[in-house]
Amino acid sequence: MIKVCNLSGGYGSQRIIKNISFSVEKGEFLGILGPNGSGKTTLLNTMAGTLPAAEGSVHLAGKPVARYKPKELAQIMAVLPQKTSQTFTFTVKETVSFGRYPFQKGLFRQMDEKDEAIVQEVMEQTGVALFAQKSIRDLSGGEQQRVYLAQALAQQPDVLLLDEPTNFLDMSYQKELLDLVKRLTREKGLAAVGIFHDVNAASLYCDWLLFMKKGTAGQKRKPEHAMTERQIKTVYDTEVNTLVHHESPKPFIAIKPEQPVLKRPEIIPFASLLKSERDCLLLQTETPLRVLSASGIGSGFSWSRTFIQKQMPAHTKEELAALLTAEGFTLQETCAMASADKPGQPICRTFEDGDLSVCISVSSHFTIWMFINGYLSDEAFVRAVMTAGEARGKALGAGEQAADGGVLIAASQENGLASKTAGEERLMQLIRFGANECVKEAVNRLK
């Protein structure tokens, strides 16, 4: 639909963008990312024809953009700029109606029924119909942004260019705007190109990503291939972590804050914090712990302060969550498991090896909790769960009753404790030995 070939340009003799090439087809949403001053807006303005290309070309529907008459171009391409001045006072409806100007004919260019219907439809799509008669100057920045999106959509374009479209919008309106653009690409075949500062929004909504830096651009790539820690660090010169989104295979990026240098890492007394109360085991800490749980609420990686094993014969996750909520626990900070039997008084032992400290608790139904004073990588968390599970299986032996419990690993993530590969190898040995000893003791208690 739109094709950029070896495009260079800028302002006067200054070259802001250099030798950029890519294409966007119908039904695609391309996100352009990069630090401030990398040339993103210059690229968008050159694509829109508001800046002339010094070298290369931009083709729209097979024809150079420079050869379109302004009115003809406006019937195919719409632009949502980063900022729009409010020189004149118009109502919201009048402002949106300007989007129909390229299609109006005759001396007086009156709106007909079709124009009115389109204006009403896009105002409702963007959530501005309720204040159609208000002056646009009386609206907030976020409301104005939605009005100008409605104006762009009133053109019923084949190509939509968006310069930081979520500026000034709160979270709910950001989602609504991006949902709408994505839906139009899918249902109407719209080709959309947007500049983003929010790398995660771009990853979730865009089909393709293009990174820019110092006026140059790489190849457009799928988000799952483009959004890597190495790529983000190279483009933005900052440290980040790549996370897994719960509902999308697309990567999720989190900035990595500078870690304070602690003279002495905090040692949490896990053994003294573990309580056996009525029909549950409970451990609560003031410090959030990073957790990898094999079953129950909070399965997978999470951060928790409260850990519960609770007796509950019918123990779906939903039922357990409802019960804990009723009892005043905050599920976002709680990792819980349920059992048909009372957890009983657990075996609880602390194992140490130099600077390493592991508190291991094994309940009567062989659920293993491990609390570690130290730092674990993702790989070490997984190894710890597997190591604990293998040790439990070995300790139970072939003739013993199968255990129905799970495995939970929680670590303080204090740097300076078990943070190197050698420390992790020592930690695995400590986990293997401690889990084996505690499960054996739990088995002997039942005999």
Automatic annotation (TrEMBL):
Residue ranges constituting the ABC transporter domain according to the UniProt record: 2-239
Pfam families xref list: ABC_tran (PF00005)
Keywords: ATP-binding, Nucleotide-binding, Translocase, Transport
CDD domains named among the record's database cross-references: ABC_Iron-Siderophores_B12_Hemin
The protein's name: Vitamin B12 transport system, ATPase component
Natural source organism: Bacillus atrophaeus (strain 1942)
